[in-house]
UniProtKB/TrEMBL annotation:
<dbReference type="GO" id="GO:0043800">
    <property type="term" value="F:6-phospho-3-hexuloisomerase activity"/>
</dbReference>
<feature type="domain" description="SIS">
    <location>
        <begin position="29"/>
        <end position="172"/>
    </location>
</feature>
<dbReference type="InterPro" id="IPR046348">
    <property type="entry name" value="SIS_dom_sf"/>
</dbReference>
<keyword id="KW-0413">Isomerase</keyword>
<protein>
    <submittedName>
        <fullName>6-phospho-3-hexuloisomerase</fullName>
        <ecNumber>5.3.1.27</ecNumber>
    </submittedName>
</protein>
<dbReference type="InterPro" id="IPR001347">
    <property type="entry name" value="SIS_dom"/>
</dbReference>
<dbReference type="Pfam" id="PF01380">
    <property type="entry name" value="SIS"/>
</dbReference>
<comment type="similarity">
    <text>Belongs to the SIS family. PHI subfamily.</text>
</comment>
<dbReference type="InterPro" id="IPR017552">
    <property type="entry name" value="PHI/rmpB"/>
</dbReference>
Amino acid sequence: METIKYASEIVKELHRSVERIVEEEAETLADIILQSNKVFVTGAGRSGLMGRAFAMRLMHTGINAYVVGETVTPGIGKDDVLIIGTGSGETRSLIPMAQKAKGLGASVVAVTIAPESAIGSLADALVKLPGSPKDQASGGHTTIQPMASLFEQTLLVFYDAVILRIMDKTGLDSDRMYGRHANLE
C-alpha cells in the first residue's frame, strides 16, 4: 500500500472510531470543565502528548488549564478536575495521581478504552473511546495501525471536539482565542 492510501485508511478508521463515542459522555466532560476552577490534564506517552495539546487549547479558551508535572502547575484541590487520557486505564504512574486528586477533593475524569480499569473505577466521570488493536480480540474495532495509534488519534480529535463544544457553549470564537496565543515564539 502506498503512503497516501495508508493515510486515507487512517482517516476512515478515525471516522469509524469517532462515530462510536457516546455524546452524553462527551457533553458531561465539557460541562465538568466549564464548572471547574482549574483543569489538570495528564496521560503517559503519546496519550500525554494529546493531553498537552488539549491543555493548550483549553488555555486559549480562557480556562485555567495545566499539564501535570510542569514546573508552573499549581496544586489541585476542591472544585478542580483531573482529566486522564489513558488507553488501558492501568498505567502505573497515573493511578496514584487519580487517587491523590480524589483525596484532595478534586473530580477525576478518565478518557479511556477501558472503563472497568483501575483508573476507570476511580473516575467520577468517564468517556469511553474506541481505538486499540486490543479491541480486535473482543470483536471490536480493527485497525491497520500499530499499537495504540488509533486511540491516540481519536483522543486528539475528541479533545478538539470538546474545545469546539466549549466554544459553542461560551460564545467564543477563534479570533478571540488568538489573544491568548503565545507571542514569545
